[in-house]
Amino acid sequence: MRKWIAAGLAALTVLVLASCSGQEDLKNLVEHKSGEEQVVNLFSPMEKTEPNTENVARTAADLTVAMAEEKLGLTVAYRTYTAEDYQDKTYDDVALDRARNDMDDLYLLNPDTILALGREGKLADLSGLDSAQNLREIIRIANTVDGKLVAIPQEVVAYGLFVNVDLFRKYALALPNTPEEFLECCRVFQENGIETPIGANRWWLETFVFALAYADLYNGGNTEAEIAALNSGEARYSDYMRPGFAFLQTLIDRGYVDAEKALVSEAIEGEGEDFLAGRTPIVMAYWGAANSETAYARTDFEMQVIGFPRSRGQMPVMPMTGWGVGARAEHLEDALEVLDTITSDEALQLYSETNRVISPSRNVHVECVPALKPLNERIEEGVYVLGSNAGMSVEQWGNTCRIVRDLLGGATVESCMASFDALQDAALNES
Questions:
Q1: pLDDT tens digits, one per residue of 215-273
Q2: Is 163 left (phi over 0), alpha (psi -120 to 50) or beta?
Q3: CA 396 – CA 429 distance, rounded (Å)
Q4: Rounded CA gap, 332 and 328, in Å?
Q5: CA torsion angle for 373, 375, 379, 382 (degrees, to 10)?
Q6: What is the C-alpha separation between 366 and 383, in angstroms, rounded?
Q7: In this predicted structure, what is the pLDDT of residue 106?
Q8: Residue 104 near residue 98 (C-beta atoms within 8 A)
Q9: Contact 76/139 with Cβ under 8 angstroms?
Q10: What span, in angstroms and rounded, lies between the C-alpha atoms of 9 and 268?
Q11: CA torsion 22→108→143→207, rounded to 10°?
């Protein structure tokens, strides 16, 4: 992950990686003192030590911040938390602590942190911002807590299956649309000498679970009612999750996923070499990995990114991170103006063109690289599953990632379901 940050990946993508790399420990908090000028304090994981440093490799997020500084006549002071090792607090831990103590104005937050701070009333309601009026409905749903829009992202991060199309053609296989077709592809690969068809790491196998768990909930026309039933306890999260965990167990039992290796493998670093060398036909990754030259942008074979197999067809999975403003921020009004500017259509157009990503604004569209078109087409059709949703009583992305790792470590499907039941019962007791 440190290499990707240094290469200049978008800050938002970096934060999602930190979320699903889940709880990497971080340290070296750097605070920047300002004079008497108008200042907004921004807390994020971006590796930036001087807010005004000239840097040709500035990320897209930095460019939009510079736009806000020029338009509003203020300075955005970066307070960053840089990943170095595993000996200190996680980024999420520090973000929670700082927001609860009103230490900054503007925060870049992971899904579980958005949910926690939103429930505690620590984040300002952003629904009145001009930029909020242009949001895709998916963004509004995912970042609304107790009726308040508490975070706005600069990109929609989508996860999918990265597939070696040449290997599929070699064995006369069509790209899979359903779980049954996917299992058949894995069987054929294995019978032809590819011992482990799926390259996996300890963070992103949860995307399979989400696709199988919530495809009907988000695409069946009854989303609000189903979520209300989950939040009231009328429905059980474990009933939704069971098919996904059972499917993962099947992949493990048949040797299509190496559970022991996955449990200790970091994202991309664990499986990337085999995929790029053509030894592994399938990996899972996020949208930006197809754009980044340090990940899967340059392959010696034809690559496509498709959704996860489901009875409804290929299903993208999209977690949400976003910018939030402290409800009692010292520079509240200025921070809201900065956020309104960096999430305006003008700024999002710049951001999306720089990083070639999906915009949260329904008015901003950027041509994606050819490999991403299958995934993008599904998203533009409105077919997707949310990997995080602040409207759900049980935080999804982080908890599911953790319980999937339990499965990789040898836990049974039923014990994993008991973990979800315990989380739901705790949420019901708190409500």
A1: 999 999 999 899 999 999 999 999 999 999 999 999 999 999 999 999 998 888 888 99
A2: beta
A3: 18
A4: 7
A5: 110
A6: 18
A7: 97
A8: yes
A9: no
A10: 14
A11: -30
Place of tokens 């989380």: 423
Q: Which residue has the tokens 């054929």?
A: 188
Q: Are 427 and 393 in contact (CB under 8 A)?
A: yes
Residue 58 CA: distances (Å) to CA of 64, 351, 353, 388: 10, 11, 14, 28
**Sole residue written with tokens 């058949």:** 184
Q: How far is Cα 341 from Cα 339, in angstroms, rounded to an integer?
A: 5
In this structure, the strands spanning 198-199 and 282-286 are parallel
User: Could you say which residues of the chain have pLDDT below 70?
Assistant: 1-36, 46-58, 82-88, 293-294
Please report the pLDDT score of residue 59 as a whole number. Answer: 79
Asked if residue 388 lies in contact with residue 396, where contact means CB atoms within 8 angstroms, the answer is yes
* Nearest-5° Cα angle at 291, 136 to 185: 90
Q: Which residues pair with 285 in a beta bridge?
A: 160
Angle between helices 413-430 and 237-253 (to 10 degrees): 160
Q: What is the pLDDT of residue 86?
A: 30
Say which amino acid occupies 240. Y
Please name the residue that has the structure tokens 């807390």. 43
**Beta strand pairing status for 282-286 and 27-30?**
unpaired
The secondary element (H helix, E strand) that includes residue 322 is strand 322-325
Integer CA distances (angstroms), 49 to 109, 288, 331, in order? 19, 24, 21
- Residue type (1 letter), 87: Q
* Phi, psi angles (nearest 5°) of residue 237: -60, -35
Q: Which amino acid is at 316?
A: P
Measured CA angle at 414 (ends 408, 418), to 5 deg: 100
Give the position of tokens 């995929």. Answer: 275
Q: What share of the chain is helix, strand, coil (3-state, %, to 5)?
A: 45, 15, 40
